[in-house]
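Both lines are quoted verbatim for reference:

——
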Amino acid sequence: MAKDMVVPLPLQAIAILREQQKINGHTEYVFFSETAKKHQIISENTANKRLKDLGYQNIHCAHGFRATAKTLLQEQLKYPLVLVEMALGHTTKDPNGSAYGRFEYIDNRSDMLKCCLSFKISGSTLIHLSVGMSW
């Protein structure tokens, strides 16, 4: 059974979504597609095509952002596995974990996402940006 995912979005992400809403706010989905045959959302291929158009062919793919986020949050920023997995929408592998663990760690996940927004990757170096600095 699918479960709704609560995502504590930082203000920067909300601002981006509000801009996107100006483009397709008349639809149910953020990434709406008129030509999609299923669910009316863009496909992973569409996202990958845009990345290719931006010069990221053979460098990055749409699904790769999830792996990048997991690596950044766990290895570089030292966040606990449970918070990172929840941020990625993964469910616990423990057969009893879902039944008994009804936690969502909203405050912790919110702080984690805010912290993540204050970092930028330059080459293989993680650089801390001060609040208000542009990317």
User: Anything to note?
Assistant: Strands lie at 119-122, 125-128. The radius of gyration is 17 Å. Residues 11-24 form the longest helix (14 residues).
